[in-house]
Design goal:
alpha+beta, 2 domains
């Protein structure tokens, strides 16, 4: 068969490295696109992870394409146009043994050649079955598995940080509502009334919720009083879904039991160290346990020292603090020893 001139690139041949470059360009463009900039942080991470995963898969596919003819990576039965010796175009059947056009350097798209004889064509195709080897497959699978594991870990960390940030924001709003209540009530903190049937450390919410933008009866929809990681304690549901705890995850520093340090009904001016004195906190600070960095998983026992809880202070700031536990008494029953920088009493 007479050798013809260069043929046009087959439109169905996959240029893996070129696609990889497109994905990398898209990854770069995403950083400057409004869709990316305006997306929430967890969604930004998911977008970047998805693009990176696709780029990685195409990178390894492109590496295989550089070592072997591109036609070995796919099965194509579409006809190609070629020129006869007379110069007219003829259709070539793209069956496995007839008229197969081979592009040996698909990665750079520079070198194209025609298989000239039936014998050379058969010999060339004889090695095609080993083109994408088991080793290549294992490398791709291992890479995808590794990236998937990284995505799972990174995704979990992103979700955990997002929930902690939401809880901190909610507690900041509740802390502010308490201080606004004080400003409207002669600088006096909430205290149990003569007809109150509930515990003020939970039912303070009824006195301050309007300062947090809530009106009407308390309900599970009072999201500003809900920690996303709230898992409750003795009941099989979170505190913020229970009427028994006035649909709230956060407790006021007002445990009015005999001998318990608290600031219920106190004047703000009487609190000596507002930057150290607790005002409102996650329930876990009473135990202590942790909803955000738990050492007990989803279990509420045992209590342990240095469990971290989000807490708000009389001076208005909110922080994630390690809570002291002596091994016997609940954390709210005593002020901690140094070097802990918080306290329940107002002294």
């Amino acid at each position: 068969m007479a050798e013809s001139g260069p043929i046009s690139p087959h439109p169905r041949v996959c240029h893996y490295p070129h696609l990889g470059q497109r994905i990398v360009r898209r990854l770069t463009q995403d950083l400057h696109h409004d869709r990316f900039r305006n997306a929430p942080k967890p969604r930004r991470g998911a977008m970047l992870i998805a693009d990176t995963l696709l780029a990685s898969i195409l990178f390894f596919s492109g590496a295989a394409a550089k070592r072997r003819p591109a036609f070995r990576l796919l099965s194509c039965a579409a006809p190609l146009k070629n020129r006869s010796p007379s110069g007219s175009e003829i259709a070539i059947n793209m069956s496995p043994l007839r008229g197969l056009e081979v592009r040996e350097n698909c990665a750079s798209c520079r070198s194209l050649r025609r298989v000239r004889s039936r014998g050379s064509r058969d010999n060339y195709l004889a090695g095609a079955s080993s083109a994408f080897t088991l080793t290549d497959l294992m490398v791709v699978v291992a890479t995808i598995s590794l990236i998937s594991a990284i995505i799972v870990v990174a995704g979990g960390a992103i979700r955990q940080k997002s929930r902690l940030a939401r809880c901190t924001s909610n507690l900041q709003a509740v802390n502010r509502a308490l201080l606004t209540f004080c400003a409207d009530n002669a600088q006096t903190l909430p205290a149990p009334g003569p007809t109150d049937s509930g515990s003020i450390w939970w039912f303070y919410k009824e006195q301050v919720k309007r300062y947090a933008g809530l009106n009407g009866a308390s309900s599970p929809n009072d999201l500003v009083f809900a920690c996303p990681d709230d898992r409750g304690y003795s009941d099989p549901k979170p505190f913020h879904l229970s009427q028994r705890f006035d649909y709230g995850s956060y407790v006021f520093n007002g445990v009015c039991l005999p001998g318990m340090p608290n600031i219920a009904g106190a004047q703000l001016s009487s609190i000596k160290r507002p930057q150290r004195t607790l005002l409102v906190m996650e329930w876990t600070a009473h135990a202590p346990l942790s909803w955000h960095k738990s050492k007990t998983g989803n279990q509420n026992m045992p209590f342990y020292c240095d469990a971290q809880s989000v807490v708000g202070f009389v001076d208005g700031h909110v922080d994630l603090k390690k809570i002291y536990y002596d091994g016997y008494n609940a954390a709210y029953t005593q002020d901690p020893p140094p070097p802990y920088d918080y306290q329940f009493s107002g002294n």
